[in-house]
Amino acid sequence: MRSGLTPPGLRHARGAELAMAGARDAEVMAQIEHATDKEAKIYRRQAERRSLTGNGRAKIDNVIDLRAKRRAQNQG
To answer: Looking at residue 2, what is its pLDDT?
Structure first.
C-alpha cells in the first residue's frame, strides 16, 4: 500500500465518489459496509457542497467571459 493511504481513507474516498455519482444512501452503505445511513448522509452533503462549488465557479467564469466579450466588442 502506498504511503498515506489507509483503509479508512480509501473507504471515505469510495463513499464520496459514490455520493458524487448520485448513488442512493443504501448503495453507499452497501459499498462502504456501514450499518446506518449516518456516514452516507455525510458523503452526500460533501458531494452536494462540491457540486455547489462547481456551479458557483461556473457562474463566475460565465460572468468573466461575458465581460471579456463586451470589452472586445467595445474596442473593436
So the answer is: 60
